[in-house]
Design a protein that fits this description.
With 170 residues, the chain is an alpha+beta fold. It contains three helices and nine strands, in the order H-H-E-E-E-E-E-H-E-E-E-E. The protein has two domains: 43 residues, no CATH class; 124 residues, Immunoglobulin-like (Sandwich). The structure holds copper (II) ion (CU).
């Protein structure tokens, strides 16, 4: 157990470009190759990043500040969701769903509840973030689905009608 945790820790240091004087020696060759392969694989990905702010402090003025996103179908998407809300009811997530399934997913989210972070098991869900408390930032990374039209929505109870946007994969 001790050895495994050491290897994981070393891999973490290397992948972060942190101080690694001598730690390579503690990695087996195959582990080192895996780390390098992962880095090469990662550098080949075409990442597109969006900073989306959840703004507003009431049920009537809360919204995402970006309501339209377009990406190419081979891209990897990084969503940085910044919750600028200050009120306790301003808990937000961002859930990407198939076009037309927003209401269905949001309704099921009520039953999914806090243990499932208000994200139901539904085939229409493509990717979903953690819940961001007021003032928090969460990051969601996923590979673009096939070309087509999609939507995104905050599935926290009562938010799905005003907190939403369109996601287009070209
Ligand atoms: Cu919300």
């Amino acid at each position: 157990m001790k050895k495994i945790s050491k290897i994981i820790f070393c891999a973490f240091l290397i992948s972060c470009g942190g101080p690694n004087n001598g730690v390579e020696k503690q990695l087996t060759n195959s582990n080192l190759t895996k780390v390098q392969d992962a880095e090469i694989e990662n550098s080949k990905k075409e990442w597109v990043e969006f900073e989306i702010r959840a703004v507003g402090n009431t049920m009537s003025d809360m919204k995402f500040d970006i309501e339209n996103i377009q990406v190419n179908n081979d891209s990897w998407i990084r969503i940085i969701l910044i919750n600028e809300g200050e009120q306790i009811a301003m808990k937000h997530n961002i859930v990407f769903v198939n076009y037309g399934s927003r209401k269905e997913v949001a309704t099921q989210a009520l039953n999914a509840g806090p243990n499932m972070k208000y994200v139901p098991n539904n085939v229409n869900v493509i990717a979903s973030s953690d819940l961001a408390e007021p003032g928090e930032t969460v990051i969601l990374e996923f590979k673009a689905p096939k070309k087509g039209n999609y939507e995104y929505v905050c599935t926290y109870p009562g938010h799905s009608e005003s907190m939403r946007g369109y996601f287009i994969v070209k």
